[in-house]
Amino acid sequence: MSRHARPARRRLESLPYLRSVAGQAFVLQLLLILVLVTAAVVAVVADARAHSTLDAHRRSLAVAETFAHSPGMARAMSGEKPTSALESHAEAARKRSGVDSVVVFNTRGIRLTHPETPLIGKRIIGPTGLVRDELRGKTISQAFRASQGLSVVSAVPVTKADGTFLGGVSVGVKIQSVHRTVDRRLPMLIGSGAGALVLATGGAALLNRRVRRQTHGLGTAQMTRMYEHHDAVLHSVREGVLVLTADRRLLLVNDEARELLRLAPDAEGRHVGTLGLEPHLTELLTSERHVTDEVHPCGERLLSVNMRSTGRAGAPAGSVVTLRDTTALRVLSDRAVETSERLKLLSDAGVRISSTLELTGTAEKLVDVAVPRFADIAAVELLDPVLRGEEPEPPYEPLAPHRTAVGGTPAEAPLFRVGERVVYTPSTPQSRAVRTGAAVLLQADPTSAGEWPAGEARRLLDHGVHSLITVPLRFRGVTLGLATFWRARHRAPFDETDLAIAGELAVRTAVCVDNARRYTREHTMVTALQRTLLPGGLPDQDAVEAAARYLPSPGGTGGSWFDVIPLPGARVALVVGKVAGQGLHTAATMGRLRTAVQNFSARDVPPDELLSHMDELVTRLDLEHDADAHGTRITGTGCLYAIHDSVSGHCTVARAGDPGLVLAHPDGTVDIPAVPVSPPLGLGGERFEAVGLSLPAASRLVLYTNGLLEGHDRTTDTGLDLVRRALAAEPDLDPDETCRSLFQTVLPPRPSDDVALLVARTRLLGPENVAEWDVPFDPAAVAPLRAACARRLRAWGLEDAVCTTKLIISELITNALRYGAPPLHIRLLRDRRLVCEVSDGSSTAPHMRRAATTDEGGRGLFLVAQYAQRWGTRYTPYGKVIWAETPLDGR
C-alpha cells in the first residue's frame, strides 16, 4: 500500500461508523451501486445513439427508394425543365418524411433539386469513391460530411423502363438531428439512473440499519470475541438450550441439553424425530406452539420446558427451547400444593359448614366438602339426643347413632343408607374414638376386618376401601356424633397428617352441630309455643262453615294467626293477623294480640272500633318495650277483622296493614272487595274504616296473609291472579278443600314468610227460624207479647223452653221499659241455641247487682244470668241490644 493510501485508510477507520461491519458493508455497497448505475446510464446512451444512427440509415434509404421509384420520375428527369417539375415534389417528400434533404441529380452529378436553392445546379459533393458509385447507378447508404454537414446519406438510381440510367435520388439525415432526439431523452435517462441510485442507496441504508441492529455496531474482531464469549456461556450455563430450524432440525445444542436429553455427539443437523427422544417430547418439539414452564418427564427427571419461535419479519420460523431439571423442585412444589389444598379444604369447610343452622344440612355440608377432596366416602352420624335438640350425656354405650349424611357411595351399590341406625360394638374404631375422644386411623386388611362395624367390613373391602379415619364430634367435652372417612384403592391410604386434617374438620363441624342443635331446640320450643297459641280447632257455630291452614316460615317461626269467634245473634267474627318478625318474641306477641282480639270481640264492638282498640294496645306495648333495652317493637302488625251476620247476610270488614280478603260468589265469580287499607297497627294518626258486604248463602270468604301470595320470584299481583283462577276453577269446593287447593296451586315453591289462611263459606238462618215483634212502650204490652213468644216456641217444638224463655223475656222487656227508651223491639232466633234479643233506643248499659233480702227490685238481670247460658249487651247506631242464649235439648 502506498504511503498516501495509508493515512486515508487511517482516517476512514478513525470514524466509529466505518469501524463496524455494517458501516464497511454500507460503503462498499454504495460504491458498487454508483458504478453500476453510471455504467448503466452510459451504456444506455451509447446504445440509444447507435440505434438512432441505424434508424437514420434505414429511413434515408427508404425515402430515397420511394422517391426514385415514384411514377413519373423518369419522365420528369427526361423533360426539358426537370428542376421545375421535381423541386416542389422533392421538398414535399422531405417535409413529410422528416429527413433533412432530398436531392435529385443527373448523370453528370448536377443537382436538380436541393433544400437550399443556391446549391441547385451545382455538383454533388462527397468522398470521390462514393460519388463515383452514385454516378454509376449504384445504391449506397453511408455517413459522411455533405453540404449540410455530417449526415447519413442514401442514394438510389433513377432509370427508364429499358434500364437507361437517368440520374439518382440522394436523401440525407443530419447526424446532429439524430443525436438531438437522443439528447432530449438523456435527462430522463439520467433521472432514472439517479432514481435507481437513490432507491438502491435507501435499500442499502435499510439493510445497513438491520445489520447494525444485529451486530450492534461491532467490528469483525469484536464479533469474533463475542461469539467466543457467548459460546462459552452457552455451554457453561446449567440450563439446556436447543435451537431448531424451521424444518425442525437441530441447529444448536449446548452441553446441558445433551446431558438432560442424552443426545448423541452428532445430533446437530438431524431431525428432531430421529434423536431418540420420548414420544411426548418429540411431539412437543416438532410442534410450533409456544410453551411456558410445561413439565414433561424424561427418564427419571422432570423437565420444565419453554419454547418460543425465532421467526422475524416473515422469515422461516425456527424455535429456541430451554430445559430445566425441576425434579427436586417438583417434590417440594407437590408438598406445597398439598399443604395449600389442605388449608383451602379447611377454609372451605369453615365457610360452608357454618352456612346453615339445620342439623342435617350441617352434616351434609361436611360430606360435600370432604368428598372427593379428602376422602372417597364420608359419613356423619349423630346421637339421638342431638337430633331432638338435646345435649347427650355419657356414657354413650352402647353406641348406636343415626347416619345423618353420607357421600361418595355409588348409587348402584350404596354401602350406607341415610337415616339408618348403626350399632357399633366396643371393638370397632368408632367406639374407640368415642371412648378416647380422639381420631382413630385404621387400615382395611384381613387382620383388622374384625374391628370394623359388623356387616360393613366385607362390603368395604369388596369396593376397594383400604383405610379409614373416624373422629368424634366433640364440643365442650360433650360427644355429639361421629364423622368417618374412607379411601379406596385408587388413592393413597390415610396417614398421620390426614389425622390432623380430619380432627380439624371434626372440631369445626362439632361447633356448627352444637349451634344447629341449640337452634333446633329453640326452634322446637318456639314452634310448640306458637302451636299452643294458635287455635287448636275451630269452634262450633252455624253462621259459617270454616277451615284454616297455617304454614311456618322456612327460616323460623312467624307471627301470623287466624281465628273464628262466635258472636251472639247468629253472627261470627273472622280474623287473620300478622306480627312482623320471627322467633320467640314474635310468637309470644302474636299470642297476646290474638287474646286481645278475642277479648275485644267479647265486647261485641264493630270491626273498625275493634281495630282502634288494637291500635292503642300495640302502641302501649311498644312504649313498654322502649323502656326495656332488650325489647322488640311490634308496630307494623296487620289485622283483618270481619263480622258475618247469618240472619241478614250482611258482612262488615275492616283491616289494618297487609292481610287481604277475596270473595268467591256461589256462581263462580271472584271479586276482591274494596276494603279500605288503613295503616298497620301501632302507627296511629288515622281512623280505621269499615265496609259492608251483602253475601248470599254459600259465598266463600278467603282471608290470608301475604305469605300465601309472595315468594322470592313472585309479586302480590301475580299471587292474586292465581287465587282468582283457583277459586273460579272450582266453585263447589268446601272450605277445607279450598284451603288444600290454594296451598297446592297458589303457594310459592319457596314462601318468603309464614302463611295463615282462613276460608269461610257463609250460611243464612232461614226466615222460619226468626221471629220478631215491635213492642209498644207500655208495661201493659208485656203480657200479650209474652204469650205470642210462647206460641212461637210451641210452634217450633220447644215446649221445654217455654217457661224459661217467658221469664227471660219478661225481665228483659221490663228492664227496657224501666231504663230504656223507645223504640222497643224483640227478636227470637232458633239456631243451635235459642237467642232472645230485646233492643231499645237507649245507650245506657245495664248492670247486674245482687239485691238484698229486703229489696223489692234489682233481681231481673240476676235471674236472666241464672237461667241463660250466656247474656250480654251490644250497641247499635240507634241504641243497644240485650241478648240471652239458652241451650236447646238435643241440639
UniProtKB/TrEMBL annotation:
<dbReference type="InterPro" id="IPR052016">
    <property type="entry name" value="Bact_Sigma-Reg"/>
</dbReference>
<keyword id="KW-1133">Transmembrane helix</keyword>
<dbReference type="Pfam" id="PF17203">
    <property type="entry name" value="sCache_3_2"/>
</dbReference>
<keyword id="KW-0812">Transmembrane</keyword>
<dbReference type="InterPro" id="IPR036457">
    <property type="entry name" value="PPM-type-like_dom_sf"/>
</dbReference>
<dbReference type="InterPro" id="IPR003594">
    <property type="entry name" value="HATPase_dom"/>
</dbReference>
<feature type="domain" description="PAS">
    <location>
        <begin position="228"/>
        <end position="293"/>
    </location>
</feature>
<dbReference type="InterPro" id="IPR033463">
    <property type="entry name" value="sCache_3"/>
</dbReference>
<keyword id="KW-1003">Cell membrane</keyword>
<dbReference type="Pfam" id="PF07228">
    <property type="entry name" value="SpoIIE"/>
</dbReference>
<dbReference type="InterPro" id="IPR029151">
    <property type="entry name" value="Sensor-like_sf"/>
</dbReference>
<dbReference type="InterPro" id="IPR029016">
    <property type="entry name" value="GAF-like_dom_sf"/>
</dbReference>
<dbReference type="InterPro" id="IPR001932">
    <property type="entry name" value="PPM-type_phosphatase-like_dom"/>
</dbReference>
<keyword id="KW-0472">Membrane</keyword>
<dbReference type="Pfam" id="PF13185">
    <property type="entry name" value="GAF_2"/>
</dbReference>
<dbReference type="InterPro" id="IPR036890">
    <property type="entry name" value="HATPase_C_sf"/>
</dbReference>
<dbReference type="InterPro" id="IPR003018">
    <property type="entry name" value="GAF"/>
</dbReference>
<keyword id="KW-0378">Hydrolase</keyword>
<dbReference type="Pfam" id="PF13581">
    <property type="entry name" value="HATPase_c_2"/>
</dbReference>
<feature type="domain" description="PPM-type phosphatase">
    <location>
        <begin position="541"/>
        <end position="762"/>
    </location>
</feature>
<dbReference type="InterPro" id="IPR000014">
    <property type="entry name" value="PAS"/>
</dbReference>
<protein>
    <submittedName>
        <fullName>SpoIIE family protein phosphatase</fullName>
    </submittedName>
</protein>
<feature type="transmembrane region" description="Helical">
    <location>
        <begin position="21"/>
        <end position="46"/>
    </location>
</feature>
